[in-house]
Amino acid sequence: MQSKLRSELAYTTVQTMLNVLLRKGKVKRVQEGRAFRYQSVVSRERAAGSAVHDLVKRMFGGSTEHC
C-alpha cells in the first residue's frame, strides 16, 4: 500500500490514516499472515461526495447559497 502512494510517507503515518479510515467504516481489512490487506468499502464517487458535503458544512454552515 505504502509503495503505491505518490509521496514519501512514514510507515506509521500510513498506518494511522488506515486505522482512522477503518474506524470510520471507509475501508475493511483482511489478515494475510502477519500483515493486513486493506480494501475500500465506499466508491470513489461516494467518498468525494461526502468530502464535498463535509466541506460545505464546515465552511458555510451547511448552506449551499454561498457556493
Descriptive report:
This protein has 67 residues and is an alpha+beta fold. It contains 2 helices and 2 strands, in the order αββα. It has helices at residues 11-23, 44-60, and strands spanning 27-32, 35-40. Strands 1-2 form a two-stranded antiparallel sheet. A hairpin with a 2-residue loop joins strand 1 and strand 2 (35-40). The longest helix is centred in the C-terminal third of the chain and has 17 residues, at 44-60. The radius of gyration is 15 Å and the shape is elongated. The model has no long low-confidence stretch (mean pLDDT 86).
Task: Record keyword descriptors for this entry.
alpha+beta, 2 helices
Percentage of residues in DSSP E strands:
15-25%
| Overall pLDDT level | 86
Shape: elongated
Helical region count?
A: 2
Give the tally of β-strands: 2
- Please outline the major beta sheet: 2 strands, antiparallel
SSE arrangement, N to C: HEEH
Distance between the termini: 36 Å
What is the gyration radius calculated from CA atoms? 15 Å
**By helix and strand content, what is the structural category?**
alpha+beta
Side-by-side strand order of the widest sheet: 1-2
- Poorly predicted runs are none
The percent of residues in helical segments reads 40-55%
